[in-house]
Design a protein that fits this description.
The protein has about 325 residues and is α/β, with parallel strands linked by helices. Helix content is about 40%, strand content about 10%. It has 2 domains: about 10-100 and about 210-330, Rossmann fold (3-Layer(aba) Sandwich), CATH 3.40.50.150; about 125-205, DNA polymerase, domain 1 (Orthogonal Bundle), CATH 1.10.150. It has helices spanning about 10-20, 35-45, 55-70, 80-85, 100-105, 130-135, 140-150, 155-170, 175-185, 195-205, 210-225, 235-250, 290-300, 325-330, and strands at about 25-30, 45-50, 70-75, 90-95, 225-235, 270-275, 305-310. Bound molecules: S-adenosylmethionine (SAM). S-adenosylmethionine binds near residues 53, 80, 96, 98 and 99.
């Protein structure tokens, strides 16, 4: 199909790790502009069921539907809900975490400090609090926690203090307003825009991205058939940590002691690790691919996004992890 405006990252590696088979059913948990789904459908005579919280992704999905007919289906829903929509085992699930270039480039969505727009940042604009809601209602302490824990921003307290002082004069409603405020606090020479971390933190909080990821991984585990594959492309250390903890918990047997009686009820490992590869090709310097350039700008660590393919082994999903976890909620 004709290329879309978003260049999918690690497409070759993702397709190879999924080990697509004719007749298989695969989940693209983060449809975006459909780059992964398109390649999956092109690479094997399989079916793809896609999810995205963003209504803009549904337009890309319609193009795929027109082209591939019943081999493609999509849900305008968070991937944390995938197990509610999919009742038959699937052969693979892929997550490409974060936001897409078109989302960042559209000032009206409020994700980017580069384009002025309403301070929204919701992936699903049908519901939930906007970034402006958080910025104008959270306490100074709560804001500092968000910036520190979700953005790893060293000047979190000073930024929060300035926000609280400024909003007492006038609500903060625009991306450029917030970006300028942050830049006035985080001074000096930086390889990235000083507002980067604050914006990343707010976006993660607004969309409960870490809570979504925890529930989404457990949901994927639930719907994967034995020997099905889980592939995750993550972009910053907070996501990496969650994915790695999930994988190591699922890939090794629960700790036992030779002094204790054998407990047959302990969960068996449900995955085996197939591989964890950093992004092999270096960043092209002269003319970076757009998606890479964007990601490198927002999250420098994205130059080498971790990549986690996993093979499903056994069949005991860990239901306790399906309890939604809201990291932002816990910390606030
Ligand atoms: C990096 S883009 C995916 C790009 C896609 N692989 C492609 O080839 O175009 C991430 C997408 O995931 C979506 N997304 C992020 N978190 C989500 C969630 N919890 N549930 C569903 N979609 C989500 C975003 O709206 C965005 O469209």
């Amino acid at each position: 199909m004709p290329a879309e405006t978003h260049t999918p990252v690690m497409l070759r590696e993702v397709i190879s790790a999924l080990k697509l088979c004719d007749g298989g059913v695969y989940v693209d948990a983060t449809l975006g502009r459909g780059g992964y789904a398109d390649k999956m459908l092109e690479s094997a005579h399989c079916q793809v069921i896609a999810f995205d919280r963003d209504h803009a992704a549904m337009a890309a999905g319609q193009r795929l539907q027109q082209h591939y007919g019943q081999r493609f289906a999509m849900h305008h829903a968070p991937f944390a809900h995938m197990a509610q929509h999919i009742t038959h085992p699937v052969q693979g699930v892929v997550f490409d975490l974060g936001v897409s270039s078109p989302q960042l480039d559209d000032g009206a969505r409020g994700f980017s400090f580069r384009h002025d727009g309403p301070l929204d940042m919701r992936m699903d604009q049908r519901e939930g609090e906007t970034a402006a809601d958080l910025v104008n209602t959270k306490t100074e302490r709560e804001l500092a926690d968000i910036f520190f824990h979700l953005g790893e921003e060293k000047r979190a307290r000073q930024i929060a203090k300035k926000i609280v002082a400024q909003r007492a004069q006038q609500p903060i409603t625009r991306t450029h307003q917030l970006a300028e405020l942050v830049r006035s606090v985080v001074k000096g020479l930086h390889s990235i825009d000083p507002a980067t971390r604050t914006f990343q933190a707010l976006r993660i909080a607004v969309n409960d991205e870490l809570g979504q990821l925890k529930v989404g991984l457990a949901a994927a585990e639930k719907i994967l058939a034995p020997h099905g594959r889980l592939v995750v492309v993550s972009f910053h250390s907070l996501e990496d940590r969650i994915v790695k903890q999930f994988l190591s918990a699922r890939a090794k047997p629960a700790a036992t002691s030779r002094h204790l009686p054998v407990n047959d009820n302990q969960p068996k490992p449900s995955f085996t690790l197939v591989g964890s590869q950093p992004h092999p090709p270096p960043m092209p310097k002269a003319k970076p691919i757009r998606a890479h350039a964007r990601r490198a700008f927002v999250w420098p660590s994205a130059r080498r996004p971790p990549f986690f393919p996993q093979r499903r082994l056994h069949d005991p999903p860990h239901d306790h992890d399906l309890v939604p976890v809201s990291l932002a909620g816990q910390r606030l």
